[in-house]
Each structure stands twice: as structure tokens, then as C-alpha cells.
């Protein structure tokens, strides 16, 4: 499906940038427009693939291009005030060509956390296309303010979008990497998954037509109904057959064993679902799901997808499980993507809320205490007078 991407804040901008790199490299042609919005000038300058006029600096009058320093209420206010500048950049996007908007942001900071829900609400008011969010949760080691920001933003963002897709940094961080190297690796993981999801259903003229190709309406229907969604992914390397003549077949002429093809798909479906999800959660209690099997057409078969789909129905307890394939060559893999739409059993979200409520109380107490202590500190028992 065709998307307009809006990256908000530093994480949002970087993920959109990575998406553009993927789109060009994979020849997916999914991105029809992309902008990055930030309150920090330096962060916008750090973007590689977006042309300068697609990078929108907001809040210049308020924060002089220095960012909002994790104050997400300020981030939201600035986005409200400068919404016309954002709209000005969107006027350059061929909206009649897109199927949906995707607003991307890290929810722990100030700009993305505060501005992304404001921008989503604006888009929904102006356009009829669905507006999806991609929200990134902070690591638990980032501290109280990031957790509090993320919990408040998550609650707000989910109400402003047609569906909120979530990636949890905490579940994905590795030890022994610098923060920056770590983020770059995470951003590639994010884009690999969302790239397959949104490229499925974009089968081009002249490319291989699969047995039951996923259509963008199936992605839209899985995301319809709202809530929070998560993605699972698994892949395995395969030998890509040489294409010879009109029919594609192995250069040696050997046929693929269909039982093996089926089993490969069903085992990948299990791995994708039961492995690490972008937002870890319990699979049961999922409202809708979509299964996408990507790979060279020789490795895709209806039976594998049907088995996988049935298994997903049992696991999720959902009666709305869609499935299809996404024929693609050149990756040397068979990959399975599982989209769980409208998940309800998410311990991480409960935990995030709990920690945020505690942080909110602590911050309140600390502020009160330090105000008292400061009053004590400056108290001279009326012996000293102020200058004026
Ligand atoms: N996956 C991923 N997460 C990131 C990246 N950069 C930052 N984050 C996460 O996103 C959160 C917000 O950070 P930023 O995007 O830098 O914040 P911002 O929206 O620019 O807001 P301010 O800097 O406070 O104005 C952080 O708490 C991290 O959890 C990134 O490149 N990739
Ligand atoms: Mg920033």
C-alpha cells in the first residue's frame, strides 16, 4: 500500500529516513511522501534521505531550534501552534495517491511524544485516509520522566489514530552496544517488519503473481477497529531459483518438495508469533490478525498459508485471521510476518502505566519537598530585606 510518512522528533525522523532507504533499496515504491517534523534543528540536519524542504522545524519562536528537552506538554503546544507549517509541507504530498498516513515517533521524549498525537488528530480532521501511528516505547532504564511521557503519550496517541502500531525499545535493546549503534540496529529491525507489511499488496506489473496475494485492503481491514497492534517476524534463507525462459524453475530442473514448502511456512508462522514481537504480548485476546508470507513464488504455497492461518486462529482466538502471500525475489529468504491487530493482553502496557503513575506521584512529592526546602534555605527569619 502507498503511504505518506510523517516522522516526529528525532526517533521519528530517523525511522522515516531508514524507511526511505529501504523503499529505494527494495524497490518497494511504498512511500509517496515523507516529511520530518522537529523542534531541534540539529536533529533535522542529521537526516540523510529526506530533501531539506521536507524537514520542518517547528517552535522556532519558543525554543529557538533547541528542542523541548523531554517536555511533551510543550511539544504538544508547539505542534498546535505551528500546525499550519506542518500542513504546508503536507500540501506537497500527493494525498490522492496514498492509502494511509503513518505518523512515527518515540514516545519517551518531548517533541515526538507531544506532537505526534496532535499531528494525527489534525490529519484525521483534514483527510479521509486512515491515519496510523507507529509509537516507540522507551527502555525501562531511561528513567521516570521518559516512562511518564510514554504512558501519557500512548494513551493520547491511540485515541487519535485509526491504529497504533507499537515497537518496544526495552524488549529489543542489546547490551554491549553504544546507544547510537543500538538505535541504528533497532531502526533496521523496525523497517524490515513494517517494510514487509506495507509492501505486501504492492505487486507490480510484470512481477510474479502469487497464489493469493495480500491486498492493501486486507491490511487496512486488519488495522480497522483500532487499538494497539504488534508485529511478529521470522525468516529463513533459501536458494533462489535461477529464472530461465518464461517459467521460473531451478537451473537443475528439480522441483521443490511441496511438503517441505508447507512445513517451512507453518514453522515460520509459529516462530514469528511465539518469538519476540515488536510489542511483546499474550497472543490470545487478539481481535484480528494478518499473515503475510514473503519470498520467491516457488516457495509460497496455499497449503502452508492455510495451515498457518488456522493455527493463528487457534492461538489468538480470533475469527478474523487473514492471510496471503507477497511474492518477491532477490532477498534469498522466505519470511513470515504476523500482524496482531487490537491486542488486549499486554503486560508491558500495564507495567508502563503503573511505573508512570508512581513517577508522577514521586515527581509531585519531590517538587513540593524541594519548594519547601528552598523556602527554608532562603529564609533569614526576616533579618534580610530584598533589594526591591
Ligand atoms: N528505536 C529508536 N528509538 C529511539 C531513537 N532515538 C530515540 N529513541 C527513543 O525515542 C525516545 C524519544 O527520543 P527522541 O526521539 O530523541 O525525542 P524527541 O521526540 O526528539 O523529543 P525531545 O528531544 O525531547 O525534543 C527516547 O526516549 C528513546 O526511547 C532511535 O533512533 N531509534
Ligand atoms: Mg530530540
What's the overall average pLDDT, rounded? 92
How big a fraction of the residues is strand?
Answer: 15-25%
How many β-strands, per DSSP? 10
Identify low-pLDDT runs: 248-253
Encode the helix/strand succession as letters: EHEHEHHHEHEHEHHHEHEHEEH
Global structural class:
alpha/beta
Termini separation: 66 Å
Helix content: 40-55%
Q: Which of globular, elongated, flat, extended, rod-shaped describes the shape?
A: globular
Bound molecules: guanosine-5'-triphosphate, magnesium ion
CA gyration radius, whole angstroms: 24 Å
Q: Output the number of helix runs.
A: 13
What does it look like?
With 388 residues, this protein is an alpha/beta fold. The chain has helices spanning 9-26, 41-45, 60-63, 72-81, 83-90, 111-126, 144-160, 169-172, 179-199, 216-223, 258-274, 302-316, 347-378, and strands spanning 3-8, 31-38, 55-57, 100-106, 131-137, 163-168, 228-237, 286-295, 320-327, 333-343. It is globular and about 95 Å long. The chain starts with a strand and ends in a 10-residue tail after the last helix. Mean pLDDT is 92; it is low at 248-253. It binds guanosine-5'-triphosphate and magnesium ion. The site of magnesium ion has 7 residues, from helix 1. Guanosine-5'-triphosphate binds at residues 9-11, 14, 39-40, 43, 67-70, 106, 108-113, 136, 138-139, 142, 146, 169, 183, 186-187.
Amino acid at each position: 500500500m502507498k503511504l505518506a510518512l510523517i516522522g516526529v522528533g528525532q526517533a521519528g525522523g530517523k525511522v522515516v529516513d531508514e524507511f526511505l532507504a529501504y523503499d529505494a533499496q527494495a524497490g518497494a515504491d511504498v512511500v509517496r511522501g515523507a516529511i520530518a517534523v522537529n523542534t531541534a534543528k540539529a536533529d533535522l540536519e542529521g537526516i540523510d534521505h529526506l530533501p531539506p524542504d521536507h524537514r520542518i522545524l517547528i517552535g522556532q519562536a519558543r525554543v529557538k531550534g533547541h528542542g523541548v528537552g523531554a517536555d511533551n506538554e510543550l511539544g504538544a503546544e508547539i505542534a498546535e501552534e505551528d500546525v499550519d507549517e506542518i500542513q504546508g509541507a503536507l500540501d506537497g504530498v500527493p494525498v490522492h495517491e496514498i492509502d494511509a498516513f503513518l505518523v512515527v515517533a518515540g514516545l519517551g521524549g518531548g517533541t515526538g511524544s507531544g506532537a505526534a498525537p496532535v499531528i494525527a488528530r489534525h490529519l484525521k480532521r483534514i483527510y479521509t485516509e486512515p491515519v496510523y501511528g507507529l509509537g516507540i516505547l522507551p527502555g525501562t532504564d531511561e528513567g521516570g520522566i521518559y516512562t511518564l511521557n510514554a504512558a501519557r503519550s500512548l494513551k493520547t496517541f491511540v485515541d487519535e489514530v485509526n491504529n497504533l502500531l507499537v515497537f518496544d525499545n526495552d524488549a529489543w535493546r542489546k547490551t554491549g552496544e553504544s546507544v547510537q549503534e543500538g538505535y541504528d540496529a533497532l531502526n533496521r529491525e523496525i523497517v524490515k517488519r513494517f517494510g514487509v507489511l506495507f509492501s505486501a499488496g504492492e505487486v507490480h506489473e510484470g512481477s510474479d503473481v502469487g497464489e493469493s496475494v495480500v491486498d492493501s485492503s486486507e491490511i487496512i481491514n486488519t488495522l480497522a477497529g483500532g487499538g494497539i497492534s504488534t508485529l511478529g517476524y521470522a525468516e529463513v534463507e533459501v536458494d533462489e531459483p535461477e529464472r530461465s525462459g518464461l517459467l521460473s524453475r531451478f537451473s537443475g530442473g528439480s522441483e521443490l518438495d511441496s511438503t517441505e514448502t508447507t512445513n517451512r511456512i507453518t514453522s515460520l508462522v509459529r516462530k514469528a508469533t511465539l518469538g519476540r514481537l515488536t510489542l511483546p504480548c499474550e497472543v490470545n485476546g487478539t481481535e484480528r490478525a494478518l499473515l503475510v508470507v514473503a519470498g520467491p513464488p516457488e516457495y509460497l504455497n496455499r497449503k502452508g498459508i492455510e495451515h498457518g492461518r488456522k493455527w493463528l486462529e487457534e492461538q489468538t482466538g480470533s475469527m478474523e485471521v487473514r492471510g496471503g502471500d507477497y511474492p518477491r525475489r532477490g532477498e534469498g529468504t522466505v519470511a513470515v510476518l504476523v500482524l496482531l491487530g487490537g491486542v488486549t493482553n499486554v503486560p508491558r502496557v500495564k507495567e508502563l502505566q503503573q511505573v508512570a503513575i508512581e513517577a508522577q506521584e514521586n515527581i509531585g512529592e519531590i517538587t513540593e519537598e524541594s519548594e519547601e526546602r528552598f523556602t527554608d534555605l532562603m529564609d533569614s527569619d526576616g533579618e534580610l530585606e530584598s533589594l526591591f
